UniProtKB/TrEMBL annotation:
GO terms for molecular function: medium-chain fatty acid-CoA ligase activity. This is Uncharacterized protein. Signal peptide: none annotated. Residues 634-727 form the AMP-binding enzyme C-terminal domain. Residues 288-308 are annotated as: Disordered. Belongs to the ATP-dependent AMP-binding enzyme family. CDD domains: MCS. One of its GO terms (biological process) is fatty acid metabolic process. Residues 306-574 form the AMP-dependent synthetase/ligase domain.
Amino acid sequence: MFCAFSPLLARVAYASLFEHNHVLKRVFTSHPSKVALTLEVPGMPEAQFTYGQLQRDVLAVADAMARRREAVALSRGEASLSWLQPRKPAHVRSVFAQGDRVPSCDYMRDTGFYTTSLLCGPGYRYVVSLLASWSLNQLTTPMSVSQRYNDELSYVLEHSGSHTVIGETHLLKEKLPAAYEELHVRGEAGVDRVSRSLSKKEKPQESSKVRCNTFLVDTVLDVTSLIQESTAKREMRESATIEVEWLPPTDSACAPMRSAEDVMKRLGDERIAAKARDMNRQAEILQREHLRRNRAPTDASRAGDRGQSDIHGDDLLCFDSERLDELNQVYRRWYADPSTRPGEYDDCLMLYTSGTTAKPKGVVHTHASVGSMVRVLQDAWEWRDTDSVLHILPWHHVHGLANILLCAIASHARCVITPFDDAARVAHRLERGDITLFMAVPTVYTKLIDAVQRRFSPIEKTGFRKGCMESVRLMVCGSAPLPVPTLNQFRELSGHTLLERYGMTETGMALSQPLHPIADRHSGTVGSPLPTVQTCVYQPETREAAEQISAKEADFDEVGALGIASDSLFDRYWNNPTATKKDVRTNAAGVRFFDTGDTVGVRLQEGKPAVYTILGRTSVDIIKSRGYKLSALEIEAVLLSRRDLFYEVAIVGTPDAVQGESVVAVIAMQPEAAEARGIAFDEGAAVHESARVTDELKKVALELLAPYKCPSRYIVVPAIPRNATGKVNKKNLKRMLHLL
């Protein structure tokens, strides 16, 4: 005899295993049917992924990662789970932490045995890979998919000491050389299969050598295949909606039915059995309701404070504590022995600096610092689960990763992913009515302005402004200085006053203009310190040198180098204690700060927080000329007010025997302005400099700037090269133009 059967499980939420990571826990407390990610690529059908799909795929990929790491470790004779990151001792903290501590940069041995490099483009598979790695407490390093292997990718793999690479099928094939082929795991069938070359345990003296030109990488996981297999298995399970149980026959069921009395007896037995099953189901329902009503408050139940609905226990993805053998080795250990679970100060994320002033450094963030930078922005910018953010930025930098993606999924919001391939298309996407947030860099806003002005009809311009005003509640700009003319032009077209903020890979977001009131967003500034942030403005050299900035020109109450202290500060530079300690500054009260390397001007306000203006990188944007310290960013912003002439401007200083440094303007002109002056570029002529153009532009500058701030040279180029986040590497620019 068969019947529909729903077993009474000892249900434990997976979220309870992920207390160490704010974002991961929030994802696992979201409504499973809610859309988490929407992928919109021109020429391809739109793809949507729910939080329920995301949770299940994260677990499936994490299971494969855990099995693979365990298989490799055991094949080498290493202890079970020796590949897991050990919990950081309580007395070990960042060198920037307050109070007594052992600096982590001195304590940690950054060998990379728990480091995973991520090679995915923006999209669903990236999110699955990131969260799966975090769920196993692995230090995760996103890599730029726009870079070549022989440049940045090989540098990251070697420098990080990554043992695992997880990526998409096509990127693994395109970006990694043939030496990695034998390390590929393309599906579950290959997870437990370890080649002989990997099984050989390295001798200590060989540990610094590369393995077949793959550095320390021993596993390359194809996340595309793993997700496809996971989806196929899940669909098969969901198609079997009834679990069938064999019920032992009763004595009457075994007896032959020879009379009407036998039939009546059989029916009576069946009624009794049915009643017992019904009572069991009622008991199960009552137990679940009791657990739901009496459970302790969680992040999910407190989420209503941010406009996010409560989540019932029945909606949480759970495992059965009576079937722990179904969990991977890591989760099983964490459930059985909570003392082995990760700590909030364990390593979580390593991002590489953009390297605009030096070689890229690996910036290590902990679960605590990542959680802090997300929570701060959730509160400051009032993220809601009803929000939809349009994501067009790279995902291997803090702006695109933390400010947009992590804030979105930690808020149970929807992240709409689309490439910035056509400014007009993206502008039309903003006006459709379902996007509530948009964040970009200044070059994106410049291109949006150009597209709307040049390619939109009057009716389309009206529609763009109307759509932005009615549906988009916040537009943010950062990662590079926003020229005031660009701010004003975009406000005219969209009706939005862009919110400017300041942050770095090392600090997360530190300063921000207010969400409300909009009138307090002062153009040319980056606002005030965010919650948990302390600032210190100090003199990096001599007070006399700093005072040489013209106070009446800049109108600042204080000028100096910016130091930051906050819960979002990074832990250390990977395997570089010297560089980490070099950036520590301590004020008179003994508070430790991180030296940002930026020079700021501070304007005090009565009854309100002080407002900060970024004057530039101390090393490249502060030009010492004729006894003055000039802000390259200020000069750039003023010249860009002549939009009829200048499309882009980069101000640099070059050595000068008399002046110390002379001011040089590298410019990209508006197409009409260049054509009117007979300036054209081809493969043989990528730079234009002439006395006629320089004399004309000097006169323009004198109308806008004090004489000592005016550039002495104007070099015209087709476009100013920028990195993925819109920043100009001025050292490379000077080298390219022979200005060093």
